[in-house]
UniProtKB/TrEMBL annotation:
Residues 152-175 have a biased composition (Basic and acidic residues). PANTHER family: LD44506P (PTHR22957:SF26), TBC1 DOMAIN FAMILY MEMBER GTPASE-ACTIVATING PROTEIN (PTHR22957). Residues 265-505 form the Rab-GAP TBC domain. This is GTPase-activating protein. Residues 1-48, 66-105, 129-175, 305-326 are annotated as: Disordered. Residues 1-18, 90-101 have a biased composition (Polar residues). It comes from the Eukaryota. Residues 70-85, 315-324 have a biased composition (Low complexity).
Length: 590
């Protein structure tokens, strides 16, 4: 969705745009103007040629700088931007000032008198404003990422010095095309030898046919001191696994029967193959499975070579090209991908390795150039990670692959297969919700409107309170629809939630709406006691860090209830508001 900053057609300056927004009495659903007694702070103008994200993203209005936090008793959880912090530094009047302090010293004095959360590491980070382009959906800025990677690099060097008696070792490139050469050289974690994960000896058979991993599943053992309830739970899980194995080993797999099975506690070997089948990536016939996998993986790798092989780009397996080489890439797309990938799941070690980031970059770039109607949009980088993590786990004996393993140490054939399978499954997923990412994002707008009406039916008190506080659903639920709640819950919990989405005929395009409704109503008791800024702060940082698989299953159960009551019953939602305000939602059948 494009927003014009000048009604007359003339391009206004950033300062004029700010004044116009703050003085307007527009009833825009995307903006709540703060009440200020002082003029707005001037922000540095951005280079118009710099690509920082999708031009039609609504998430810019979610920046905390936009909220009126001056009158709140509680501090924001994140420090203010460097620019606003500098402008709030108290200065002496000209008549009483005896000496002029340098800006750096003055700023450090200010930092020392405030909260530790406001501290900066070095002077170069304080003044490097151009690199501090934060993610539209709340991920760390690049300057924060640089500080974090610098600390990790220092720790890694100290570890190597201790282990190698002061010797140094040059990090080898991954055995793949290094296409992010325009980024400054990054430091990646170096796992200890004792932390390495074990590759399955049968990985070649699994590469050929995922069904070969099914006989490697180890059933959970029953402890000697287990209670009768625990014994029943373990036996139920074994029964579910055996049902999956029986269906997946059939010559022709019945997808309706596969969708009807319970997913709780299924191992990665079952999950990976089932996802590929339910997304129609794998054929249901076992006779065609091997040939199809080989053909689709080869097609993807050929696409990678075609996208990156020209214009000086090296062939797979060779060293990286010199800096400044003309690769023939779409620089606008590549620039945004190269920014977003390093801050994808930054709290998980698996996604900080070079091999992981290069793989995600190739997947996202190839998908973007193959889908010019939408191209790459921020948020798609999150959607590929559940596939990548599930498919990688099939080849590893340890079920916990989020830490202690550098994928670059695995055979190239394994990484190629994981990357190709992830690409095709991401493509299948996005084919069903591509109107979420085309210009104006009509799919997201319909779902946000439907969520507003559905909430009014499920919890009228919450809906009225949000309306009273002038909280628009687009302000917080845009990210829920764009990233499929991946910024709100962990990757492991997302994988369990996607199990159910896969089993639903329209899980990502329709059932996700009811999950979002159940998710919002879950916090109703807290939200009705909050004002506008507290609601926005709370919904941007929900307390789901300790959620387990049981919490996700409870959320899914509640979503099923709302779907059974309201799906196909759009007439029940009429009369909740003005006819004009509900016209868009009526086009979306619940």
């Amino acid at each position: 969705m494009m927003f014009s900053s000048s009604a007359g057609g003339k391009k206004a300056t950033p300062q004029q745009e700010m004044v116009q927004v703050e003085r307007s009495d527009s009833a825009s659903p995307f903006w709540k103007a703060p009440q200020r007694d002082t003029p707005p702070l001037k922000k540095p103008a951005r280079d118009s040629s710099l690509v920082v994200g999708a031009a039609y993203s609504h998430a810019d209005i979610l920046k905390f700088d936009s909220l009126n936090i001056s009158g709140s008793g509680s501090r924001p959880r994140t420090p203010p931007s460097a620019t606003s912090a500098l402008e709030r530094v108290p200065t002496q009047s000209p008549t009483t000032r005896t000496s002029k302090s340098p800006p750096f010293k003055q700023y450090m004095n200010f930092l020392s008198s405030t909260n530790d959360d406001w501290t900066a590491d070095e002077a170069e980070d304080m003044y490097d404003y151009e690199s501090d382009d934060g993610d539209d959906f709340g991920l760390p800025s690049l300057s924060n990422m640089k500080r974090r990677t610098r600390k990790k690099a220092e720790q890694s060097r100290a570890h190597l010095d201790d282990g190698l008696n002061g010797g140094s070792r040059e990090r080898r490139y991954s055995n793949s095309e290094d296409i992010a050469i325009e980024r400054p050289a990054a430091s990646y974690p170096m796992p200890k030898k004792s932390e390495g994960k074990i590759l399955r000896p049968q990985y070649k058979e699994i590469l050929r046919d995922p069904a070969n991993a099914l006989h490697l599943i180890n059933h959970p053992s029953i402890p000697a001191n287990a209670t009768p309830k625990e014994v029943d739970a373990i036996n139920s899980r074994i029964t579910r696994i055996n049902k999956f194995k029986k269906l997946l080993q059939a010559s022709t797999i019945p997808l309706p029967d596969l969708r009807s099975l319970a997913w709780s506690g299924v191992p990665e070997e079952v999950r990976a193959m089932t996802w590929q089948l339910l997304l129609s990536y794998l054929p249901t016939s076992s006779e065609r499975r091997v040939a199809t996998l080989e053909r689709k993986r080869k097609e993807y790798l050929d696409g990678v070579r075609q996208a990156f092989g020209g214009g000086g780009q090296p062939a797979p397996g060779s060293s990286a090209p010199p800096r400044g080489t003309n690769r023939g890439l779409d620089e606008a797309i590549w620039h945004q991908i190269s920014i977003d990938v390093p801050r994808t799941n930054p709290h998980i070690e698996l996604y900080s390795y070079e091999a992981t980031q290069r793989s995600l970059e190739r997947i996202l770039y190839v998908w973007a150039v193959r889908h010019p109607a939408s191209g790459y949009v921020q948020g798609i980088n999150d959607l590929v990670t559940p596939f990548w993590q599930v498919f990688l786990g099939t080849y590893i004996t340890d079920p916990d692959i989020e830490s202690g393993m550098d994928p670059g140490q695995l055979p190239k054939a394994v990484l190629d297969a994981v990357e190709a399978d992830s690409f095709w499954c991401l493509t299948k997923l996005l084919d069903g919700i591509q109107d979420h990412y085309i210009v104006a994002q009509p799919g997201i707008q319909r779902q946000v409107s439907a969520l507003r009406d559905l909430t009014a039916r499920i919890d009228a008190g919450l809906a009225k309170h949000l309306e009273k506080e002038q909280v628009e659903f687009i302000q917080f639920s845009f990210r829920w629809m764009n990233c499929l709640l991946m910024r709100e819950i962990s990757v492991k919990n997302t994988i369990r939630m996607w199990d159910t989405y896969m089993a639903e005929e329209q899980g990502f395009s329709e059932f996700h709406l009811y999950v979002c409704a159940a998710f919002l109503v879950k916090w109703s008791d807290k939200l009705v006691k909050m004002d506008f800024q507290e609601i926005m702060m709370f919904l941007q940082s929900l307390p789901t860090g300790d959620w387990t698989e049981k919490d996700i299953e409870l959320l899914l159960s509640e979503a099923y209830i709302w779907q059974s009551l309201f799906k196909g019953s759009s007439a029940h939602l009429k009369g909740q508001g003005g006819e004009g305000s509900r016209s868009a939602s009526m086009n979306f059948t619940l």
